[in-house]
Structure formats: structure tokens, C-alpha cells
Amino acid sequence: MPILQTPFARLDLLRQPPQRDDPLQAFDAADEYLLNHLHGLGLAASSRVLLLNDAFGALACSLAPHARVVSSGDSHLGYLALQDNLRRNGLAGDAVAFVPASEVAEGPFDWVLIRVPKTLALLEEQLIRLHGRLAPDARVIAAAMVKHLPRAAGDLLERYVGPVQASLAVKKARLLTAAPAERPAPVSPYPTRYRLDAPPVELVNHANLFCREGLDIGTRAFLPHLPGGLGAARVADLGCGNGVLGIACALANPEAQLTLVDESYMAVQSARENWRAALGERPAEIRAADGLIGQAAESLDLVLCNPPFHQQQVVGDFLAWRMFQQARAALVAGGQLWIVGNRHLGYHAKLKRLFRGVEQVAATPKFVILKAIK
């Protein structure tokens, strides 16, 4: 197991969700570079440090014994990884305060250390929120692997924080240091909104949502084929995003009982706002979670899912396979999992390993809609 060794700590770290023989590690050279650089600058024990997008807690666990640390990110899996890795390394669970990205971390902060996220809209929103929350002489440093560092990241730091200086690359990682300067109070372009004709709803999309400007083509292919006549069925929208599948199902099935789940806090925030706008006070459970891990066994009749095929920059079907397993455990005998997926991903064969029956409901040149029966 790789160990993160820096002047701040020697740490044994794991990723989330856990995966047997995981070839990937919970930190990278950008974490090491940032921590080594920070140590060289000097970190006072009284410093308030804000960490943004610290995926699995490598920065937080390193710095928790040395400063007052607040970590903020949009991944519930990231929060679970932080908690596990604090315990794993003998640190208290409350050694680091965690603020979901759907909320604002209250300053002032002496240091802001940023792992540049895949979605630059999230970075933009986070930088906008720093306005008025930096202490005098605060320092803002962003880190990324060079291959994941677009020029636009530096442009955003320049626009919202101040002049930016790029470091030399070390082990294919780079740092961007922004010197805070006077900037007018920014107006956030988020959330974005778009309208659908069927169902006739307007959808709010906070900064880290996939396809913020319009409905993604997989969901567009899925919507006309959602099941009706469900009565009081217990239905989950797994990986709900802005909630459109669950909302459409609820509108078509007035007695159905809906649960909407996503690991993104901004997705859950969007889904809650969209549910309220479309369905008023109709009850629903909308929560941030590791999929259906917390769902009681055999407590659902139907699961709807447009599964992701990446975690941050890592592409693969590991998360989808895990969601299929979770759905099977949560469904009653005879319950159904309905999914949409790219044809080339071969979900039909994978579902047959878990479910007694798999049927193709519909198809487009790019997507298939499948129904798996427990």
C-alpha cells in the first residue's frame, strides 16, 4: 500500500469506494508538491486553512495536527474517505471540519489550498465564494497534475483572486499561486436553468452538475420510456443528478413514493429545489449518500438509473457495477432496475450476472434502455 510521506505526516490512505486490489492510490504528486511547498513557506498552528476538493483527505489528514483545517468538496464519497482516513491514521473524526459544496465555508482563511476539479464551473463557484472570506495577507494555492490542468483554471484564479504565478512542474505536477488583490464583488452565473417540454418543468442546476446547460442525451432517450401505472410503488432515482428522472416518474405516477439519491451535494441541492418547484410539498426522500448503501434490503419496487462511467478523471464501469449491486439488494423479489446506457458499455451482459431477467425496453443508435428483474 503506497504511503504519503511529507514533512507534515506519514499517512496510510485509502480511496472511496473501496475496491479490491485497487490499482489507484488516494493521493498523487500534486498533493505531495503542495504539502512540501506549504511546509517550506511555514504554517502557523493558529492558521485557518480551507481545503477545496481534497478528494480522499490526503491534504486534510496531513494538515489536521498542524493548523485549524476546514475541508469543502462536492463528493459524499470524498467525505466518507476523509472520515475513514482520519481514523485510519489515528486522528479524531472531528479534527477537520467538513462543509459540503452546497454550503459556504465561513472565513476568514489564512490559506486556501485547492485541488483543481474536473469541472471548472465548480472551481469558478468556489473562487466566487472566497470573496470577503480571505484574511489579510492570505495565500491561495491551486495544485493539479499537468495533464489535468487547463489554462482556464489559471484564468479563473486571476479573475476572482488576483495575479497568478505558475510553478515549475515537479513529477508532472504544477502549482498556481494567486496573490489576493482587490476585486469587485462577483455575481455568480450559477445555478443555471433550462426548461423541458415533457414533462413541462424548469430545472435548476448548481455548478458541479453534469450537463448544466441542457438535458443530457442519455436521460433524453430514457424519459419517454419511464414506466407508468406504478400505483404506490416505492421508487428510487439512483444517481439522481438534478432529479429529472425521479420528478418525471412522480408526475406520471401520483401515488408513487420517491427516493432521490446522489453522491454530489450540489446534485442533491438541485434535486431538492427542482422537486419543490415541480411537486410542491409532496413527500420525497432526497439525500446525499453512497448510492443505496443505506437503503433497507428489499425496500424498493423500482430503481431508475443513468449510471456514471467515471469517477473524477478515472473512466470505467466500476461505479455502475456497484450501483447495480446496490439496486439488487434494495429491490424486492420481482422488483425492477431500469437503466439507460451507451450501447458499447455492454450493460446487458453485466446485468444478467445479477438479475434473473434482462429485457431491452427501447434503443437509439447510441443508447439502450434496459429492464432487469430480480
UniProtKB/TrEMBL annotation:
Any GO BP annotation: methylation
Pfam families reported in the protein's UniProt record: MTS (PF05175), RLMG_N (PF26049)
Domain RlmG N-terminal: 1-180
Coiled coil spans: none
Catalytic activity: guanosine(1835) in 23S rRNA + S-adenosyl-L-methionine = N(2)-methylguanosine(1835) in 23S rRNA + S-adenosyl-L-homocysteine + H(+)
Keywords from the named record: Cytoplasm, Methyltransferase, rRNA processing, S-adenosyl-L-methionine, Transferase
InterPro entries: DNA_methylase_N6_adenine_CS, RLMG, RlmG_N, RsmC/RlmG, SAM-dependent_MTases_sf, Small_mtfrase_dom
Source domain of life: Bacteria
HAMAP family found in the cross-reference section: 23SrRNA_methyltr_G
Protein family per UniProt: Belongs to the methyltransferase superfamily. RlmG family.
Protein name: Ribosomal RNA large subunit methyltransferase G
Originating species: Azotobacter bryophylli
